[in-house]
Amino acid sequence: AVVQISHPGRQTTISNGITPLSPSGVPLRGIAGHTPLIPKPRAMTQTEVDALPEAFAEAAHIMCNDHGFDGVQLHAAHGYLLDTFLSARSNTRSDKYGGNTLRERGEVLRRCAAAVRRAVGP
């Protein structure tokens, strides 16, 4: 069995009292009837982004070693946090996690995947 791990990023509702996070503080738009429930996200600091690979690796380690999963899928689509790093619309960062190319914006995803692989093996 494979477990999927993700971070909701800017798709966090006001009901949980947590300020949503995103690469650049770009708000979520275009979900009819739901957008008022989702507050404007806060741009992540570089320190917070630097910590993401270890957080994903820790989650993967727990799920595989403590709960018996055979593999891990990083969910990097559908507007969740890792996906928003890939998009030029939601990632306007000028540090090592942003840029004009998908390769540049994909740096955090590459780091997360490498950390997960180190944590649970190939």
From TrEMBL:
Boundaries of each NADH:flavin oxidoreductase/NADH oxidase N-terminal domain copy? Answer: 1-121
Does the keyword section mention Flavoprotein? Answer: yes
Provide this UniProt record's keywords sorted from A to Z: Flavoprotein, Oxidoreductase
- State which residue ranges cross the membrane: none
Xref: Gene3D superfamilies: Aldolase class I
> Annotated Gene Ontology MF terms?
FMN binding; oxidoreductase activity
| Pfam annotation, one family | Oxidored_FMN
Family membership noted in the UniProt record:
Belongs to the NADH:flavin oxidoreductase/NADH oxidase family.
How is this protein named in the record?
A: NADH:flavin oxidoreductase/NADH oxidase N-terminal domain-containing protein
